[in-house]
Fold this protein.
Amino acid sequence: MAAVALRVVAAGESFVAIESLASAWGMTVAKSSTTLVELRGRWTTLQFVPLTRQLRVNGTLVWLNDTVREARGRWAINAVDRAKTLEPILSPSRHLVGLSAGLVLLDPGHGGDDPGAVGPEGLLEKHLTLDLARRVRVQLANLGIRSILTRDSDRALGLSERAALVRRHGAHVFVSLHFNATASRSIYGVETFALTPRGYSSTAGGDSSSWRQSAVAGNRHDAANVVLAYQIQRSLRQWLGPDHDRGVRRARFQVLREATCPAVLVECGFLSHPATARRLRSAEYLDALAQRIALGIQEYVRAVRAAAPPPAVR
Ligand SMILES: [Zn+2]
């Protein structure tokens, strides 16, 4: 195995030259310029965009925890991104040992007096998330994966209560379903959030330093969180196309902080985008969306099963 060069750039942080990762992972450097560093392996192409947090894994956008920067004249990534983004995505089974995946807890966002985002003609996020969660449950059942819902009616449910249901039901995977809205009617696409690792900034920024440093339950599953997020985002991108891919993102949402199993939050489309709002009125579209989410969860479940230690032979 090739030695991986580490260079300490700031106190407590180290950066890894992307070229040295290529040799460690048996990949080749296909391109290295000021706008793109591309590594190619047998099954995987990695594309880093210098001076940004953007990485594409076989085309799927994954936001890094730190910026791709120059160190000793070579493009480098933060070692935390090697450990907590790239290696879990590239070799999931090594990072999922000891986990189970027998029960998925689906969490329809909002409910009751909290409508969530509001779309045109009375389209409410709370109704869509519940409708979608029920359809995901059906799709998972078709794939032989057991799932339950945090709420199966139009009722209010606190964020901590949702996370607490993981423990109460002994769930192994938590998937919160949402739709977003913004002032601009031209923004569209889907994004999947995993909890930001301790010490780093969320994709949208805005984390104070005490917030960045606080230890939360969800960080126990940093590696599994990103594998789950990547598989769901990848599945959605394959169906919707690259222009809908807003990427695997990082945030410190309360349900992700408090979940005691691997957890993600999927923003399944913008209600403020007229064409998306129209599609979301179609049962066929919602079924297809549910199926893509279920297929992403299935890939994660497969990786967990592949990681489980083989039963002892006597
Ligand atoms: Zn929401």
